[in-house]
Write a structure and sequence with these properties.
The strands form five sheets. This protein has a six-stranded parallel sheet, sandwiched between helices. Strands 2-4-7-6-5 form a five-stranded mixed sheet, sandwiched between helices. Strands 8-9-10 form a three-stranded antiparallel sheet. It is built from 23 helices and 18 strands. The chain folds into five domains: 83 residues, DNA polymerase beta, N-terminal domain-like (DNA polymerase, domain 1, Orthogonal Bundle); 63 residues, Orthogonal Bundle (DNA polymerase, domain 1); 92 residues, Beta Polymerase, domain 2 (2-Layer Sandwich), CATH 3.30.460; 78 residues, Beta Polymerase, domain 3 (2-Layer Sandwich), CATH 3.30.210.10; 240 residues, TIM Barrel. By secondary structure, the chain is of the alpha/beta class. The chain is 43% helix and 15% strand. 45% of the residues are buried. It binds 2'-deoxyguanosine-5'-triphosphate, calcium ion (2 copies) and zinc ion. 2'-deoxyguanosine-5'-triphosphate binds next to helix 10, helix 12 and helix 13.
Length: 583
């Protein structure tokens, strides 16, 4: 039973509770517990054994008991009870934009249907339109939403979301009447997947209409989902929803904060405000009336998010840390956290060439790195067992070394300060050994060790496999540890906290694979990584020259995971990097 397993069960309870119309706060407690457990620095099983579940913040007696039941029986009574009342198929309905838990429950009860396909039919036949409070318009919208969901899925990867958000942001920012503008929501927090895109604008109410007109007319818009006085929602070509909210300039700091989230962060902020005799909501910070209610006549003037934080005895919390994962303690004591940025990255680590499954030659990859101002490149093609990906035989390895030596000599004689390192992305075989004999491994500058096969190994066995690979002296970096492909393939079962401890102990880095499909190491283990002193390398795993630019996404995740430059090995100069990999 991994922390992830428990978190998933608790989220299932949360989803079902919403559909069952249970008390919202009771439901949210399960969501919060799930999120806490995902971010634990140790294993939930240990807390169970030592009976310390309730010491974990956000886990009360009742949820602790649910977790114990889950450990013992594989399920929870609260979940079984909900499952009896709420059919499983309905959970998926929560992903249909514009359809909330109340209407889901209503449609289900009146029409006795549970599957999305049935819902679509019921919308087409007119059955949904006849229900009180719904109507033809709602039914048509549900159909469209289902069609988009079928085509594009409920969430997008970070890169896909940025590709939509960037043009909208640039467009809206320059419209007449727009005083301030920012992307909010999960995208501002650099989450690895994005539901919808949120944009906040500060403008005088008189200007709102013309701003919305321009927004819904944007060339990327395929459908207007809603239009009001303060909010418009559109759907874009690639199925993403974009929400634009226009607020009065004086409301902007609080609105930006509220719509940046996360929901969990907001809950704690509101609590902090209450404890200080104030109320915080999306409109601003206010004094409380004598009845302890928000007194809208007594706004506490704030010009920026930073000032709101200050009024609540905190330093500014950067958006990527607003997840209720330790930021309140940290930014109470500290003005800021040192975080890695794109300009700190000096070398491109983990790249493939035509020698294995890359699209470009080593020379072309090197030139692309030089063009982008990097000082070094480590070629890490696949090793021999990865035959499906053109893994290198021993003879090919030797030939590749010669090519790299020649290129390095050429750079030197051309007075180009650039260096290619000889590396390999060695498969970690089933038993944890690397993919070449020691005398070959010795010839590389260093080895990146990754699992590419038997991804569904049981946890214990997988941990032994990784431990052996990490303790191998030739391994300096572990590649994409969980092997997840976002929105496509689940992660392998791993005790990530333990893995981080072992890697830190061996002074081996765990990469942040910057491919937007992976973003693995997961940022949720950032606190553990920091505590253990784990090193990372922000690696594009580039299979083409364009792939090098994925470093951007890796840096976003590294910041979210609280890495400072000193713990990111490819911030080192070529000389220091060499010293480290050979050390
Ligand atoms: P997403 O779109 O699923 O990737 O995630 P977000 O975080 O962008 O969520 P979204 O778009 O539903 O709402 C934007 C922000 O608005 C969210 O991060 C926090 C705030 N917010 C929305 N609903 C609630 C709520 O029920 N309670 C609180 N406290 N905040 C909320
Ligand atoms: Ca959003
Ligand atoms: Ca939204
Ligand atoms: Zn790989």
């Amino acid at each position: 039973m991994t922390n992830q397993d428990v978190a998933e069960k608790l989220r299932e309870v949360y989803n079902l509770m919403q559909l069952a119309g249970e008390n919202r706060f009771r439901a949210i407690a399960f969501d919060r517990a799930a999120q806490t457990i995902e971010g634990l620095n140790d294993e939930i099983t240990k807390h169970l054994e030592e009976d310390t579940l309730t010491d974990i913040k956000g886990i009360g007696k009742s949820i602790a008991e649910d977790i114990r039941q889950f450990a013992e029986t594989g399920t929870m009574p609260v979940l079984e009870d909900l499952k009896e009342r709420v059919p499983k198929g309905l959970i998926e309905w929560l992903n249909i934009s514009g359809l909330g838990p109340k209407n889901i429950s209503k449609i289900h009860k009146k029409l006795g249907i549970t599957e999305i396909t049935e819902l679509k039919e019921a919308c087409q036949s007119g059955a949904v339109a006849e229900l009180p409070g719904l109507g033809q318009k709602s039914a048509d919208k549900i159909i469209k939403s289902i069609e988009y969901l079928e085509k594009f899925g409920e969430r997008a990867r970070l890169d896909q979301a940025l590709d939509i958000a960037d043009p909208f942001f640039k467009f809206v920012k320059n419209l007449d009447g727009v005083q301030k503008c920012e992307i909010a929501g999960s995208l501002r927090r650099s989450r690895e997947t994005i539901g919808d895109i949120d944009i906040i604008v500060a403008a005088n109410p008189d200007d709102a209409e013309s701003i919305f007109d321009a927004f819904v007319d944007h060339e990327l818009v395929v459908e207007v989902l809603g239009r009001g006085d303060t909010k418009s929602s559109v759907r874009t070509e690639n199925g993403r929803q974009v929400d634009l909210r226009i607020v009065k300039p004086e409301e902007y700091p609080a609105a930006l904060m509220y719509f940046t989230g996360s929901k969990e962060h907001n809950i704690v902020m509101r609590q902090r405000a209450r404890e200080r005799g104030m109320a915080l909501n999306e409109y601003g910070l206010f004094k409380l009336s004598e009845e302890k209610e928000t007194d809208f006549d007594k706004p506490v003037k704030t010009e920026s998010e930073a000032e709101i934080y200050k009024k609540l005895d905190l330093h500014f919390v950067p958006p990527e840390h607003r997840e209720d994962r330790g930021e309140f303690d940290f930014y109470y004591d500290h003005e800021e956290m040192e975080l890695v940025s794109e300009s700190d990255i000096k070398g491109v680590v983990h790249a493939h060439s035509t020698w294995s499954d890359g699209k470009y030659s080593i020379k072309e990859m090197a030139e692309a790195c030089i063009e982008r101002g990097y000082e070094y490149l480590t070629m890490s093609d696949h090793s021999k067992t990865a035959a499906y990906a053109g893994g290198l035989t021993i003879d090919q390895v030797k030939e590749q070394w010669e090519e790299i030596d020649n290129l390095n000599e050429q750079f030197a004689s051309d007075k180009i300060k650039f260096r290619i390192f000889k590396s390999i992305e060695s498969d970690i075989l089933g038993d944890g050994s690397l993919d070449y004999p020691d005398e070959i491994l010795e010839g590389f500058d260093f080895v990146i060790a990754s699992v590419h096969s038997s991804l569904n190994m049981p946890l214990e066995q997988m941990m032994e496999r990784f431990e052996k690979a990490i303790r191998n002296p030739y391994t300096r970096i572990v590649g994409h540890p969980t092997n997840r492909l976002l929105l496509k393939r689940k992660e392998s079962k791993l005790d990530m906290n333990r893995l981080i401890e072992i890697a830190a102990e061996e002074n081996t880095a765990i990469e942040i694979n910057a491919s937007p499909w992976r973003l693995d190491l997961d940022w949720r283990f950032g606190n553990k990584a920091k505590e253990a002193g784990l090193l990372t390398s922000i690696n594009p795993d580039a299979h083409s020259t364009d792939g090098i630019d994925d470093i951007r996404y890796g840096v976003m995740i590294a910041r979210k995971a609280k890495f400072e430059p000193a713990r990111v090995i490819n911030t080192k100069s070529a000389e220091q990097f060499e010293e480290w990999v050979k050390g």
